[in-house]
User: Which sequence fits this backbone?
DNA sequence: TTATATTAGTTGACGTATCAATTATTGAGC
DNA sequence: GCTCAATAATTGATACGTCAACTAATATAA
């Protein structure tokens, strides 16, 4: 009896994670004006002068295909600039445009506001503990099987 | 200085949540043989004799359109049966087929194995605290703005 | 009873992630 | 130098979620 309801709660945890994601996606975008992934890409670009798509992909850790598509769209919008490496034509280097560099500041302010809202009633202790647990979950998922 | 790195960690929490989801989706499906949403639908059906799509949609809380499509595919696979309410033709009632009722047992065992793996190094205390925090996050997201 | 509103379900358009296959370029071994 | 392997990027197919528009059936109100 003591153990029997333990799994039910475990299931709730996993379901909660799933639902949090589903609800976050549209809310994040309507608040910040940009998707989470795309902002993450821009943020990485913000930190460097120029970077290859491959290296960028490794940093954000999403599929190559998705990276290509995001960057193409960001290029169409004039947020980023892409150019081939003259030394090795396989590589495409990406950098933020001036406009991109300006816009990202606003996006990040909105993201900060969003995050503050989501965690507003969490103490420093709780945040630390939560991050630690999420990190463990992530590792467990990666190492599973 | 003390406060300044607090936001960085908050950001990590949100990014972690996002990445956990992205990694869970394919892993869950390859482990259990079914997607999380679809299993949730089947699970709700398992609990009742018959239910309208509308009521089912409210329970799992995803878009009507997604519910319709899932159920149609599950029907094609012979997992569920659908019929119109003769009293009110707007309603479609859904129920598990015999085959569906059998198969879901296996799916749920695999899900249990998956969840156990993901949370294997969590104490009862931690699980409780984690669930509580996730619940708060979910509420904060819903109430945001 | 007839026009209008509401409700359940479906379909279409879109965004974005995955995996697999393909293209283009470079590097390595013979 | 030429073949074959490795690598970066792209494209195609598929899955699944959202919102919006639509259809069909029923309820309401004049």
Assistant:
């Amino acid at each position: 009896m003591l153990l029997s309801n333990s799994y039910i709660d475990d299931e709730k945890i996993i379901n909660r994670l799933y639902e949090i994601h589903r609800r976050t996606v549209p809310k994040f975008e309507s608040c910040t004006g940009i998707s989470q992934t795309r902002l993450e890409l821009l943020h990485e670009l913000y930190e460097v002068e120029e970077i290859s798509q491959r290296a960028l992909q490794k940093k954000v850790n999403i599929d190559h295909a998705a990276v290509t598509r995001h960057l193409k769209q960001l290029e169409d919008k004039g947020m980023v600039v892409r150019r081939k490496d003259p030394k090795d034509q396989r590589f495409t280097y990406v950098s933020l445009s001036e406009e991109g560099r300006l816009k990202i500041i606003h996006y990040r302010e909105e993201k900060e506001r969003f995050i503050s809202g989501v965690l507003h009633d969490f103490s420093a202790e709780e945040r630390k503990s939560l991050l630690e647990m999420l990190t463990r979950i992530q590792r467990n998922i990666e190492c599973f099987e």
